[in-house]
Design goal:
The chain is of the alpha+beta class. Helix content is 49%, strand content 12%. The chain has one domain: Orthogonal Bundle (hpI Integrase, Chain A). Strand 4 and strand 5 form a beta hairpin.
Length: 195
C-alpha cells in the first residue's frame, strides 16, 4: 500500500493487486463485493456505482463495456469503461436471477452506504493485518487504484482519461499518476541495485 497526505489533510491511497484481492475477498455480502469490484476494476465513482444496471453492460468490438451516466456531467453525458470478463459474467448472472421487469440498479445503496460499507470492510482488514493504513482507504481510492494500475501497465493516458471520464490530462496526472502505484514503485526501485 502506498499513500500520501493530500493538501486537505487526508490520505490518498493506492492498493497493490494483492491488497485489491484482500479487499474483494473480505465481504460476505455479494452486493458489497460487487460494488467494490465495479469501483476497482471499472473505475466508477461512487454515485456511478449506485446507478449501474445490467442493461448498461454492452458487448463491443473492444470487449465488454459499461456505459454509465457520468457523475461529473451536467448534460447526462454517457461514458464507457471496460469491464473484466469475470465481472461481466457476474453481472449477467445476477441479472438472470432478478425479476424480468426489474430495472433497478444492481447496487441499491446510497453513496453514504457505500462509504459505511468500505469503512466496515477496511476496519476488519486493518484488524486482521495489523495495518492501520487500511483505515484510510475510501471508495475513491478504488478508482485511484484502477486508474494508476492502468497507467502503470502503460495503457495510453488519454485512453485512461476517456475511460475514467476526465476531461483533461492534467487532472488525471495530478491525482491519479502511476508513480504512486505500488507495482510502479517496485519497478523503479529495482533499477537501483543498492535499494
Amino acid at each position: 500500500m502506498i499513500f500520501e497526505k493530500s493538501d486537505a489533510g487526508n490520505y490518498r491511497v493506492w492498493l497493490d493487486q494483492n491488497e485489491v484481492g484482500l479487499l474483494l475477498n473480505e465481504p460476505d455480502d455479494q452486493i458489497r463485493r460487487l460494488a467494490y469490484e465495479i469501483g476497482v476494476r471499472c473505475g466508477l465513482r461512487s454515485v456511478e456505482i449506485t446507478r449501474v444496471c445490467p442493461e448498461h453492460l454492452h458487448d463491443t468490438i473492444a470487449g465488454d463495456m459499461l456505459r454509465v451516466r457520468s457523475a461529473k456531467s451536467n448534460n447526462d453525458e454517457i461514458r464507457q469503461t471496460p469491464v473484466p470478463s469475470q465481472l461481466a459474467t457476474r453481472i449477467r448472472t445476477i441479472d438472470q436471477h432478478r425479476p424480468e421487469d426489474s430495472d433497478e440498479p444492481l447496487i441499491s445503496a446510497s453513496t453514504r452506504t457505500l462509504r459505511r460499507w468500505i469503512d466496515q470492510t477496511t476496519e476488519s482488514i486493518a484488524e486482521q493485518t495489523d495495518d492501520e493504513m487500511w483505515l484510510e482507504v475510501t471508495m475513491h481510492d478504488l478508482r485511484r487504484t484502477w486508474a494508476s494500475s492502468l497507467n502503470s501497465a502503460d495503457v495510453e493516458a488519454m485512453v485512461v482519461c476517456d475511460w475514467g471520464g476526465w476531461n483533461d490530462l492534467d487532472t488525471f496526472l495530478d491525482h491519479y499518476r502511476a508513480t504512486a502505484q505500488p507495482e510502479e514503485q517496485l519497478k523503479q526501485r529495482q533499477k537501483v541495485d543498492w535499494l
